[in-house]
């Protein structure tokens, strides 16, 4: 069921999102928490330009996701909030071979997490858009 939250105080939207997230099957909030942690781990490599790009992309995705949540509620369209991860993943895959040590390992783990998440997101957004089509 789609519920617009545009009338809500903008600062309450993340709290409402968290509440709806916790109503999902257990693996969903665990997965979302893991994605948050792996993205925020970029702060540990702040001296790297790519780490800054990762963190800013994470923030942009979070803002887009909260905007989508405010408009549609907890619906499959939220997967579109990770659209910025598509060019980010391509950039990481190009840059990972130049990274070394812990930063290299971090980029590999992040790439796997982003890749898996994008697969879920593509399916979710496709299902959302397919369900909104008007039969001919």
Automatic annotation (TrEMBL):
Q: Per UniProt, which keywords does this protein have? A: Membrane, Transmembrane, Transmembrane helix
Membrane-spanning ranges: 27-47, 53-70, 77-94, 106-126
Q: What is this protein called?
A: Uncharacterized protein
